[in-house]
Amino acid sequence: MTNLFVTLTAMITFASSSLAATACPKPPPPATDMNLTRYYSDAAKSQVDVAKRDDLRRQTETQRTFLRTVSRNADKAWQARTQADRNTAARCAISWLGTWAGAGAYLGHMATKQAEYQRNWDSAGFALAYLKVRKWASSTQHDRIGRWLQAMVRASYSALSELGRTRNNHWYWHGLAQAGTALATGNAQAWQRATTIFGDAVDAIAANGTLPLELSRGARALHYHVFAVMPLVVMAELADSRGEDWYRRQGGALNRLVAVSVGGLVQPALFDRFAGVNQERPVNSRAGWAFLYAVRYPKARIPPQLTKTRRHRLLGGDVRVLLAAMRAR
Predict the structure, then answer these.
(1) H-type alpha helices, the chain
(2) What pLDDT shows up at residue 18?
(3) I want to staple 275 with a disulfide (CB 3.0 to 4.6 A). Which of 149, 155, 221, 295 is the partner?
(4) Whole-angstrom Cα distance, residue 176 to residue 153?
(5) In whole angstroms, how far apart are CA 92 and each of 24, 65, 66, 315?
(6) pLDDT of residue 47
(7) Could you report the average pLDDT of every consecutive run of 10 residues in the chain (329 residues)?
(8) Contact by Cβ (8 Å): 108, 33
């Protein structure tokens, strides 16, 4: 484990020019209430209405920009060449998070399921980004941001755990939000919920590695397998930082899901057969999860094209920094 930490630390030290120690810009107004547009045109949620999808992107521009900026500053807190620049970036990320936390962002009225999903995804990104920079936070800032992160996952849990709710990829992303919040704040209940949700996920993985609920998504079955495996791999890495091996749960079910997802990304025809319908092409492989898995299991020979992009805002930015931050806890 020590050698892995040294390797990761070297990987995130870049030969880039020093960051200018500029003042932190003012964050955008907080998103409190949300009423977001659903963009599928069919009951199976397999056909995207492009106009509605573009409308959703416009509606969530502020949220995406905020999380992307926080995540980039959280990464710079580890990657910048000078200590002064690292401190500036960390304090900016903490300041932005503290501002939205103080305003109760994401804690207003979620008028639609899409709004609930947005809060769920973004809370995972916020928690993982904060995990990287919390050592720079004052006790007052840590308390404010920690209470906010915990309030968001409690609200999402209340919405997503209602009787009759489908335990699909949204549930797994909620598990990541709970796990990230647990590590960032020390909340034991959040970790227990993450543990239970991960158990729900691996219980659902079939012998051939597929997820039946995601196969039901028709032409986007492969897309949703990849979207489901993404938070689960990161959850397993968070668990490893606590000395828990979640890759072995349910006979290594997550490894089967990774294998079939990678197989589908390399040869989408695999999922044409699984789902009984031609898959949407090309499929976004998402970022970060394949790199993490390749670091954990180098003999798995994950194709390089799947590991070259290592940053995603919903994972709090660069996963190399996330690993280093976890190892340094």
Answers:
(1) 2-11, 50-59, 61-79, 83-102, 113-133, 139-160, 169-185, 188-204, 212-215, 221-240, 249-266, 269-275, 289-296, 304-307, 319-327
(2) 40
(3) 221
(4) 10
(5) 5, 14, 12, 19
(6) 80
(7) 48 42 83 90 76 90 96 97 96 98 97 95 98 97 98 96 83 98 97 98 98 95 97 98 96 98 97 96 92 96 94 96 90
(8) yes
Beta-bridge mates of residue 318: 311
| DSSP one-letter string for 117-176 | HHHHHHHHHHHHHHHHHGGGS-HHHHHHHHHHHHHHHHHHHHHHTSTT---SHHHHHHHH
Quick one: CA torsion of 240, 243, 246, 248, rounded to 10 degrees?
Answer: 120
Confidence at residue 21, expressed as pLDDT on a 0 to 100 scale: 42
Instruction: Please tell me what DSSP assigns to residue 40.
Output: B
- Cβ–Cβ < 8 Å for 200, 260: no
pLDDT of 53:
87
Angle at 155 between CA 56 and CA 216, to 5 degrees: 55
Token couple for 313: 């805002």
